[in-house]
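ARCHIVE CARD
Drawer: 12
Card no.: 0347
Subject: one protein chain, sequence and derived structure
Cross-reference: see card 0346
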Amino acid sequence: MIYLILSVLSSVIIFVVFKLFDRYKVNILHAIVVNYIVACASGIIAYDSPVSVSEIVTHDWFYYTLALGALFIIVFNLMGITTQRSGLSVVSVATKMSVVVPILFGLFYYKENFGILKIIGVVLALIAVYLASVKSKKGIVFERKTLIFPLLVFIGSGIIDTSLKFLENSFVAENDVPIFSSTIFGSAAIIGIIILIYLATQGKFKFKIKNVLGGIALGVPNYFSIYFLVKALRSTILDSSGIFTVNNVAVVMVSTLIGILLFKEKLSSKNWAGIMLAVISIFLVASSTA
């Protein structure tokens, strides 16, 4: 349970850092690249054996981490496009609703138990995510011409979570979790650096120390959000569908409460209803596996 709690807390810290990015006008793309470098370094530091690139490339999971690193960058950019065209609430819903993908994967591929309590809990969790994310009286509006972007965010986020579960279960040894996570971020960092170099050649990159500091602040919790999630998936407290459901809903719930306490955000009755449903859904999902 401790790993799941730490994964949630790490993800909530990421939320807080992103909110501060907006306040201090940090360039998100530049900070994200630094973040991947820092997250990669965090994994290397946490690894209790000498790090050898020649050895890393021999692992069965190596080429999968390269693909995941590329997917991290792609999904990030899609989230940026979706935020600009459809709003932050749409991104939040698309990202968190993607929990459906790893849940279905666990159900059909791993034949995980899916009793009536868990079904009700998952349905309530999805409703909770929507209600907690709605920031306007009109609700969340999906325009047909821009629907492809939140759809791609939904699919991409779901593939990332599902891949993490599949890889940690099939290829990653217990002692390799830090370097496995580090390699994913390292791959994303290399791709991000290439993008920044390209922007620099186009005269669109300007170095600012606050972007570096923002990336450092983001990188450490980002690494641990993945590390602790993988460790939680290895535990026996819940199956993978339960882990992903509780993790995603708890992040939305706690982030919403943090928004009230730290950033003085005001919640509507729908937001409060979402928080209440989140608590109930977590209880039902946890009880169904107990």
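Annotation on reverse: The chain has twelve helices and no strands. The two ends are 12 Å apart (CA to CA).
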